[in-house]
Amino acid sequence: MGSVFDLIAFDGDDTLWHNERSYRDAREHFRSLLNRVGIELDVDQVEATVTRTEVANIRYFGYGVSSFTLSLIETAVDVTDGRVTSDELRSLVQLAKGMMNEEIEVFDGVRDTLATLSKSRPLMLITKGDLLHQASKLERSGLQDYFQHVEIVSDKTPSVYQRILSRYGIDPSRFLMIGNSLRSDILPVIELGGVAAYIPAALNWVHEHADAPAGAHDRFFELSSVAEVAGLVKRLEAMSSRASGLLESNDD
Ligand SMILES: [Mg+2]
Fold this sequence. Notes:
Elements: E1 7-10, H1 20-36, H2 43-61, H3 65-79, H4 86-100, H5 110-118, E2 123-128, H6 131-141, E3 149-153, H7 158-168, E4 175-179, H8 182-191, E5 195-198, E6 220-222, H9 229-251
Parallel strand pairs: 1-2, 1-4, 2-3, 4-5, 5-6
Helix pairs in contact: 1-2, 1-4, 2-3, 3-4
The protein binds magnesium ion.
Magnesium ion is lined by residues 11, 13-15, 179-181.
């Protein structure tokens, strides 16, 4: 059976392990903090307000818990007109430290999938966020040995993917990316001519929402769990060896 992919890459957060729920819990903590200062916001209002600050801050601080924490502090000062106390700000810093050390819970089926796929080709983790935090999450996930390559990047744009593929000498058409974010894991890869498998997560940060790619039916796949990735790769390999078999018999 012919190999279709020279490189298969996975996103980490909310693709291999839980992540967004920890941000949701942190926003809830933030909401009760505001409540104590007399600011009543519901869950959606808190998410919208904090996300607005976070998105404006991406160009300064990038993605990850540190950036999130600075955005919480900035939002707290703004929405309370400076009435938030230093103790309350300190509790936000403490909250961030807790997030950095949270236990990593890997999704069902991840370990078996990585074990199967890593036998026949190199796997790569491509994750964005704080360098220290992302590296520590991978280590604590126990999945490190399945990945031949790890790329921790500050953003996932077409040019970032292009640089990675060039560095490893990979043709985009022989690259498969798997992830839970249409915006970060799927669209840039499709744009480069790569293949992408989208696995929606139960919880998603609103900033990562995007429309599914149009007109790339043979390069875009939606799966319901990581456990389906090995089956997808097998199907694509079977299709490709049937196609090359047809080409050969036409040559006769
Ligand atoms: Mg993700």
